[in-house]
């Protein structure tokens, strides 16, 4: 449901204006002029008897009253959407448009396999998946479920743990035959370690030595911001790679990659989390998708 075309659209326009930061951006979405959007917000302010936004030539800033009102407005709009979805699903299965965001690796190696199964179970749900390794703003982009792998930043989104990912260090049989199998953490210094760029914490690989956890700096001839690309390089014999288990699970099972240093490597378990817009966790299509992921990851 497009809340900007709903009878409660004054609320929706106000919330969307805060999310996007300008009357012009909202106007482009709902085919109104910036002044038309401004008049809607002004009408809302007159109705409740309080100024919600400070307007300057450069930006819009929430007043204290606006901050309080925004929390209630989001809850009201989410409750209306959830109520309509609940009623619509009483006589049938969950339905409607579901917006999902995921990183590239998880989308390729997990969602590509799971989404067809989900669609078989819930054929009346239409899925829109955006794939990006850059952080998005789920509120501004109106993404129902954002899937994140790894540590989370503080957020007003609702976090549901889906599972965990564990890291593996591996190389191809050809690479290991040529350069030898590392037996201890110090041996990494003589190996070409393929590194994921953009994440400083991944430039060192956590190992155990004499019962103590240590961080081992690694070096290699290739860095990339694509975990998939590094995995392909490792399969081609370019070096050792450290990856989340869901990326190389098939390659390991098929013997195309051979895990190494399992006895002293810290797999560093990290959560796989679904982040849900506040209020939408009760919408049947959102609830169905999150429950499906929890059962299958």
Automatic annotation (TrEMBL):
<keyword id="KW-0804">Transcription</keyword>
<comment type="function">
    <text>NodD regulates the expression of the nodABCFE genes which encode other nodulation proteins. NodD is also a negative regulator of its own expression. Binds flavonoids as inducers.</text>
</comment>
<dbReference type="Pfam" id="PF03466">
    <property type="entry name" value="LysR_substrate"/>
</dbReference>
<dbReference type="InterPro" id="IPR036390">
    <property type="entry name" value="WH_DNA-bd_sf"/>
</dbReference>
<keyword id="KW-0805">Transcription regulation</keyword>
<dbReference type="InterPro" id="IPR005119">
    <property type="entry name" value="LysR_subst-bd"/>
</dbReference>
<dbReference type="InterPro" id="IPR000847">
    <property type="entry name" value="LysR_HTH_N"/>
</dbReference>
<dbReference type="InterPro" id="IPR058163">
    <property type="entry name" value="LysR-type_TF_proteobact-type"/>
</dbReference>
<protein>
    <recommendedName>
        <fullName>HTH lysR-type domain-containing protein</fullName>
    </recommendedName>
</protein>
<dbReference type="InterPro" id="IPR036388">
    <property type="entry name" value="WH-like_DNA-bd_sf"/>
</dbReference>
<dbReference type="GO" id="GO:0003700">
    <property type="term" value="F:DNA-binding transcription factor activity"/>
</dbReference>
<keyword id="KW-0238">DNA-binding</keyword>
<dbReference type="GO" id="GO:0003677">
    <property type="term" value="F:DNA binding"/>
</dbReference>
<dbReference type="Pfam" id="PF00126">
    <property type="entry name" value="HTH_1"/>
</dbReference>
<comment type="similarity">
    <text>Belongs to the LysR transcriptional regulatory family.</text>
</comment>
<feature type="domain" description="HTH lysR-type">
    <location>
        <begin position="6"/>
        <end position="63"/>
    </location>
</feature>
